[in-house]
Amino acid sequence: MNSCILITYFDLDSISEAKGLCDSAQYEIVHVIKQNSLQHRKFGLSEGIIDEIKEIMQKKQPSVIIFDEILKPSQNYNLASELKIEVLDRESLILEIFESRAQSTESQMQVKLAQLRYEMSRAKEKVRLARMGEQPGFMGIGKFEVDVYYNDIKYRMMNVKSKLQKAGKQRELHRQSRKRIGFNTVSIAGYTSAGKTTLFNSLTGEKKEKSAKLFTTLTTTTRKFKLDREWVLISDTVGFISKLPAYLIEAFRSTLEELTFTDVVLVIIDSTDNSNKLKIKFSNCMKTLIKLGVERDKIIFVMNKTEKMNEYEINSKIKELDLYNNNKCVAISAITNKNFDILKKKIKESIGEHKRIISKNSGME
Ligand SMILES: Nc1nc2c(ncn2[C@@H]2O[C@H](COP(=O)(O)OP(=O)(O)O)[C@@H](O)[C@H]2O)c(=O)[nH]1
Ligand SMILES: [Mg+2]
Asked: What's the CA gap between 240 and 17, in Å, rounded?
């Protein structure tokens, strides 16, 4: 596993989201540096802290620095050359996560397109730096080379876009192949750091057992778990991100496409969020799911992190989300396994319902 020093803000939400992103991208965090501002002109962070980072790097030997904010090419270049280490900014980290999660050809192309947009948005400044001789690589770049550079990115974008238009069919095939495996499937959705991975691990058991041949074709984020006597496949999806730039939304959605053909979707809600944030996140989450075409009947609402809350607090959060009389809502703790029996019962019921609906619609009853 690669290791990183994480540079982020002071507030707890930023820290926990940034940690969640590092975790999703499989970086082990060896040190966290918190700053009030990450928008200083030269390095992104204040120059005064550079020496301290060098010292920490000596001790911890990270593979990369992860910078929880957008960096201009010049800032990235300054920081990377000063510290002599690769620097990943927030958006390139998110792109890395999407890239590792994209399963279908269509989803991979959506991510490719977002990567090209990222590159394009930085191309102008890169060229300017190169002209001034401030960024080695292509010094004394002429008008001709600049055009070539832009046009190359543009051409690749067009190419991906046209391939995307033809990809609809493959998406269908992909869905069918997953269905054909013949297992009931459950997917875990929700915001980054709501506790999806913790729940996934608690339900399936931490140990990655040597799986039967059948399962080796699945990704590391899908495992089987036993529901009474039946094996069910459960997968941990990429998390919602609170400050997601518009150009990344399509790529994000495409990595969630499995939610449309899974039998049950667990929407994990961080019950410790204050009511304002709770509502905003929940509504964003639901809007996206609906846009993806996820049927509401397939959703189980899972209020997580409730082990330290009393009944009154839990119920008031549930009421805020208008889920009080909803029998698809359950308050759990992914850490203490609180109410796992209820959760499993609801998953089982939901699978049963979904099966009935499918067979009805296909006239097989
Ligand atoms: N108190 C409490 N913390 C939890 C619970 N579930 C997860 N967490 C913590 O929340 C943080 C994010 O969890 P994680 O599973 O990585 O979230 P993910 O980004 O949704 O996969 C971690 O620090 C977990 O230890 C829970 O039930 N109770
Ligand atoms: Mg996770």
From this structure: 10
Residue 302, classed as helix, strand or coil, is strand
Q: What is the CATH number of domain 2-97?
A: 3.40.50.11060
Q: CATH says 181-361 is which class?
A: alpha beta
> Ligand 1 within 6 A of 197 CB?
yes
Ligand 1 atom closest to the CA of 191, numbered from 1? 20
Distances (CA, A) of 269 to 188, 216, 277, 280: 11, 30, 11, 11
Nearest CA to ligand 1 atom 1: 305
Encoded amino acid at 206, one letter: E
CA of 110 relative to ligand 2 center, distance in Å: 21
User: In this structure, which ligand is nearest to the CA of 97?
Assistant: 2
pTM beyond 0.85, yes or no: yes
Using H for helix, E for strand and C for coil, what is the string for 259-284? Answer: HHCCCEEEEEEECCCCHHHHHHHHHH
One digit per residue, the tens of pLDDT, for the chain of length 365 reads 899 999 999 999 999 999 999 999 999 999 999 999 999 999 999 999 999 999 999 999 999 999 999 999 889 989 999 999 999 999 999 999 999 988 888 889 999 999 999 998 888 777 777 777 655 554 455 666 777 888 899 999 999 999 988 876 666 656 655 555 678 899 999 999 999 999 999 999 855 444 444 444 455 688 888 888 888 999 999 999 988 999 999 999 999 988 988 999 999 999 999 999 999 999 999 999 999 999 999 999 999 999 999 999 999 999 999 999 999 999 999 999 999 999 999 999 999 887 766 666 654 43
195: left (phi over 0), alpha (psi -120 to 50) or beta: left
Residue 41: strand, helix, or coil: coil
Ligand 1 neighbour 339 (Cβ under 6 A): no
